[in-house]
């Protein structure tokens, strides 16, 4: 009955062809629940069939992609006019038996189940040569599967919850929620209304943990006609703001997509890029003449310890580049989203009791100047020089924070999590 209530609550009125939680949110929690001992046993098998009491669409993507199970048998959800009505079909066991009888199993089948599932799957397990029954005590003694042993690395996931939704942790979160909203509004008010030298210690007093690392060797910019370029990895929308806190000065941030509300509330100047390479390069050159500039070349955030591919646009800005390694940690709510309201990202991040932010300013790089690049005759060498600089910056930042560098892009993330390319249209400009 509890399962039926959960399914009704979660699925009633949800459009059937737009359900992506099973692929974008749940694998994070499912992976944290995989026992290392059982995973080793599972890998010894040939063809694998997974049977679950949960709706099939909730777990199918996870068990196929992360546990490498060939067939998934679960309860089907009833659909009316393209929408889930929150009711499950009870013919799960017969469907599993049909798959086995059609030759999708084998003659030497081994069944693994728990004590309270034997009766539910009695007809299915009667076809097994051997059967192993796991007790709750066995499960409690299992070790969690280490991240390095995941069959597929978990790089992208969505959802606001950063904690496992167990009973105790869920109750603690619900009790904290009213205070969290008030605390988040108070923190935002401090950041918007006070100068950096006053707001920073007050924000730390509210529970925010903020650490900064600045290299001992600094390069003077007094004789430079343009501002300085800071290139950082992207953890949350607050990255440029925390760099401003670290440097105690106003910066200009360029973004690929930012909600209007975030632009209005931002205490520093923000400029939206158009994704037109020539136009964006010219605009960034003009902004550098106005002051120091912050750019996040990943184009989107990544929660896990991975770096997405860096766009090489910043390497053409003719200035010395300071890589900035950013890291953050939350305990209850994620301050990023792919499918939700982006304007609430800073609010959710600041709702955490003690969010952690680390800013490491690395040694400066001298990128090939525009004159040097333009003097190259070979177009391939021009492109290679740009990408070499971008890859070098990505590698330095990855080494500083201990993240793995990837070739994945913003487009890859949004296709996986949201089913689109992550392009936000603006009515004002008519562009994306």
From TrEMBL:
Membrane topology: Multi-pass membrane protein
InterPro entries in the cross-refs: HAD_RAM2/GPAT1-8, Plipid/glycerol_acylTrfase
GO function term, MF aspect, one: glycerol-3-phosphate 2-O-acyltransferase activity
Domain spans labelled Phospholipid/glycerol acyltransferase: 228-329
GO BP field: cutin biosynthetic process
Keyword Thylakoid carried by entry: no
Signal peptide: none
Pfam families: Acyltransferase, HAD_RAM2_N
Residue ranges that the Swiss-Prot or TrEMBL entry lists as coiled coil: none
Similarity field: Belongs to the GPAT/DAPAT family.
Protein name: Phospholipid/glycerol acyltransferase domain-containing protein
